[in-house]
């Protein structure tokens, strides 16, 4: 069994906890070390048991607490070389043994979890998503995605559960107070995934057999949890798939821990 809990998800900070009986991993650490410790404690977990921090990309909402946690608890940080080059100054001094480098596209193991990495289209040095595999089960984490393509979908296929970005409602973004250059960035091919596209991805994967979905990285300014949920639910309904009966559909919040999801 593999378990996923979103500790925090959004532009104000991201941290996701993935574990099984023997292996405990953080994906991103984009809030203070203290807040991440407290979030783990709220679900009965101890930061001292975390064996690795995986970094998807170097933006501060994904790395803010990583250096502190690594120094304080001796936790190795895993990232590809270009991400290390982009974030090394922000993380400050780390023990050499805590600096772990993977090549995007490689498979490697931490404890008894197998991890696959894949490139995502985002405006960072070399952003990645992650598949976690254990005894025939597969969990995928894919946020900060500017657009969907066939290669990405192939990385998602076969997932039992996926945390997928549902960042913004297009009309809210267009009508909102963001300056045009920022709107253009978010809407661009290396920006963020909108509710409508997330819904299409969820519907496709549900037809392919994925049973559990968590919508993540919602914008505070250009989305609402209820809107993201309803957008995806309605597209599923068009495909005769009922959320809550045929599939699990949840929303990861920016300021609180999600449900514990196991596959």
Description:
- With about 260 residues, this protein is an alpha/beta fold.
- It contains 9 helices and 14 strands.
- It has helices at about 35-40, 60-65, 65-75, 80-90, 150-155, 170-175, 180-185, 195-210, 225-240, and strands spanning about 5-10, 15-20, 25, 50-55, 75-80, 100, 105-110, 115-120, 130-135, 135-140, 160-165, 210-215, 250, 260.
- The protein has a 7-stranded mixed beta sheet with strand order 6-5-4-3-2-1-14. It has a 7-stranded mixed beta sheet with strand order 7-8-9-10-11-12-13.
- The longest helix has 14 residues, at about 195-210.
- The chain is globular and about 50 Å long.
Brief account:
With 263 residues, the chain is of the alpha/beta class.
CATH classification, class level: Alpha Beta
Radius of gyration: 17 Å
Shape type: globular
Mean pLDDT: 97
Relevant terms:
263 residues; seven-stranded mixed β-sheet; 31% helix; alpha/beta; Metallo-beta-lactamase, Chain A
Layout: helices, strands, pairs:
Blueprint lengths: L2 E6 L6 E5 L4 E4 L5 H10 L9 E3 L5 H4 L2 H8 L3 E4 H11 L7 E4 L4 E4 L2 E7 L8 E7 L2 E6 L7 H7 L4 E5 L4 H6 L4 H8 L7 H14 L3 E5 L8 H14 L9 E4 L9 E2 L1
Parallel strand pairs: 3-4, 4-5, 5-6, 10-11, 11-12, 12-13
Antiparallel strand pairs: 1-2, 1-14, 2-3, 7-8, 8-9, 9-10
Helix pairs in contact: 8-9
């Amino acid at each position: 069994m593999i378990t996923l809990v979103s500790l925090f998800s959004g532009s104000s900070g991201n941290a996701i906890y993935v574990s099984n009986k023997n292996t405990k991993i953080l994906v991103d650490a984009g809030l203070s070390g203290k807040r991440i410790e407290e979030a783990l404690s709220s679900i009965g977990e101890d930061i001292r048991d975390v064996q690795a921090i995986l970094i998807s990309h170097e933006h501060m909402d994904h790395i803010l607490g990583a250096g502190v946690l690594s120094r304080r608890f001796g936790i190795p940080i895993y990232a590809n070389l270009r991400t290390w080059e982009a974030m090394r100054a922000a993380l400050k001094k780390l023990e050499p043994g805590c600096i772990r480098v993977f090549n995007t596209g490689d498979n490697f193991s931490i404890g008894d979890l197998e991890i696959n990495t894949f490139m995502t289209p985002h405006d960072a040095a070399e952003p990645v998503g992650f598949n976690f595999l254990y005894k025939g089960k597969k969990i995928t984490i894919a946020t900060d995605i500017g657009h969907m393509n066939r290669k990405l979908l192939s990385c998602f296929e076969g997932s039992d559960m996926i945390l997928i970005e549902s960042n913004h409602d297009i009309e809210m973004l267009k009508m909102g107070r963001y300056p045009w250059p920022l709107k253009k960035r978010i809407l661009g091919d290396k920006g963020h995934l909108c509710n409508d596209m997330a819904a299409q991805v969820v519907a496709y994967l549900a037809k392919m057999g994925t049973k559990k979905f968590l919508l993540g990285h919602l914008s505070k300014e250009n989305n609402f949890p209820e809107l993201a949920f309803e957008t995806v639910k309605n597209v599923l309904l068009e495909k005769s798939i009922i959320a809550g009966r045929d599939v699990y559909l949840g929303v990861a919040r920016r300021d609180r821990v999600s449900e514990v999801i196991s596959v």
